[in-house]
Amino acid sequence: MKENITPELVDFNNSDLKLKGFKVYPIGTDCTVIPTYNRRDFYKISISTGKSLIQYADRGIETDGTSLFFGNPYIPYSWELLSESFHGFACVFTEEFLRMNDRSESLHECPLFKIGGTPIFYLSAEQKVFINSLFEKMIEEQKTDYIFKDDLIRNYINLVIHESMKMQPSENFFKHKNASSRITSLFLELLERQFPIEAKNQPLLLKTPQDYAQNLAVHVNHLNRSVKEITGKSTTAHITERIIGEAKALLQHTDWSIADIGYSLGFEYPSYFNNYFKRLTGTIPKSLRM
Q1: pLDDT digit string (tens) for 245-275?
Q2: Where is the HTH araC/xylS-type domain (predicted)?
Q3: Do 217 and 149 belong together in one domain?
Q4: Max CA pair span of the chain
């Protein structure tokens, strides 16, 4: 049996998922619908039993038995079933759902989601039972009206992550040459290394696609094409989102003046920072101050 799947999100409401930032569901050939999705702002963890081939960025990863998969929204992938029987569970979530505050470690830094890593883990029978039980608990909790269920589900996801970090990743893959994937990986890692901002008097140095291209020793057009191809978003969009995210964190978690925050993010004048922030968020920086 060969069935092409673009993993995730057809069988439920996208706007509802965007609002809550989380969804868990069963997967398998015995389901009425095999959920699929093409959203690029969600991380995914799935446990599945069966034989399949996952095309992940520049690699093909063959699975047989029970495996755990970690999907990164910055890396496109597709799924091909190779067996008649295929079943398990999956959950998708935003980084904002999992992270308690803007100053916690980015999921980009997690070994399981890190670009360039190997996102497949094979499970023993004992591990399968335990991880399945966590997904079953998430499915049950998702149905309840418990006021703190988001916190509880967040704990289950973190437990899956930490149990997985104890395992050795599968290396059963073959590599393809893909310059776009490599350049994008280098760009995203370089972008993350610019943050967090630790000092007011050391302004952000890399602010534009041209700055990153020069640092990576590639032409800016090549960088832009590669990033767009691999992530579906422009280089400028990635930079802008990261700067705005850091601006919000500094506004909420430091006592720096708005002028100092703007300067640290590379804006020479406070008015430039105010206009930039308002254009992208619809509100002024001062509104985030308690």
Answers
A1: 999 989 988 999 999 999 999 999 999 999 9
A2: 181-290
A3: no
A4: 62
Does 56 score more than 80 pLDDT?
A: no
Is the preceding peptide bond at 26 cis, omega within 30 degrees of 0? no
User: What's the pLDDT at 6?
Assistant: 38
- Among 175, 209, 234, identify where a domain stops: 175
d(CA 258, CA 247): 9
Query: pTM for the whole thing?
Result: 0.60
Q: Which pLDDT band, with edges at 50, 70 and 90, does 15 fall under? A: very low
Instruction: Give the burial class of 101: count Cβ atoms within 10 A of its Cβ; 0-12 exposed, 13-18 middle, 19 or more buried.
Output: exposed
Tokens 């802008």 correspond to: 240
Q: Within this chain, do residues 119 and 60 fall inside the same structural domain, yes or no?
A: yes
End-to-end CA distance of the chain: 58
Task: State which residues form the domain around 47.
Answer: 3-175
CATH number at residue 231: 1.10.10.60
* Coil vs helix vs strand at 254: coil
What is the 8-class DSSP label of residue 108? Answer: G
* Gap between the Cα atoms of 115 and 110, Å rounded: 9
Query: Both tokens of residue 63?
Result: 């699975």
Looking at the fold, whether 224 and 281 belong to one and the same domain comes out as yes
